[in-house]
Predict the structure.
Amino acid sequence: MATTATEDAYTAEPFVPSRGGLSALREAAAECRGCPLHREATRTVFGKGRTGARVVLVGEQPGDQEDRQGEPFVGPAGRLLDRALAEAGIDPAQAYVTNAVKHFKFTRSAPGKRRIHKAPSLREMTACGPWLAAELALVEPELIVVLGATAGKALLGSSFRVTQQRGILLEEEIHGRKEQRVVATIHPSAVLRSDDRDAAYRGLVSDLKVAAQALR
């Protein structure tokens, strides 16, 4: 098994176990060295939920709080997402939540200053793709909800535009597997950054209602 990534061959593929369930994936992901992001992050933040969950929610990457606590969507954006899911008619406890990239990528304005989110590159998203593909293969959801542009590009390709494709039930081939039902929306952190949070939140809930309807 590879122990680190070379600059021209970033991929998590050698670290993904060929057998075992989600617990085996989670344990193996903790040792992933498939791209350089592991060097600065506190820990790998793997997905959370159970095999057989009806819906998988895919975000961009862990944030500061997720990196510290080791679980996805535990910060302010995660709390907002839970509220939006419940309002839309999706039980958060019945969803599997994960990210396209499993390590927190950040920058600092100065040494010791607050860690500032930095979007992962296409190469880093591609390198982390085998983990997400393995999660989807094990969970086998009825529906995938894509949260934000970065997650959308990771799953649906570089031509994805969340502004154009949000709130629509799509049928897409994901990671070379059979066509999968997908609904895209904005990332909950975009709501928190919006100048009009109420309108942004209503849009998020409206998109999630499309997902809820598809699960009925």
Q: What stands out?
A: The chain has a mean pLDDT of 92. DSSP finds eight helices and seven strands in the chain. The helical segments are 22-29, 64-69, 76-88, 122-139, 149-156, 162-165, 188-193, 197-214. The longest strand covers residues 179-185.
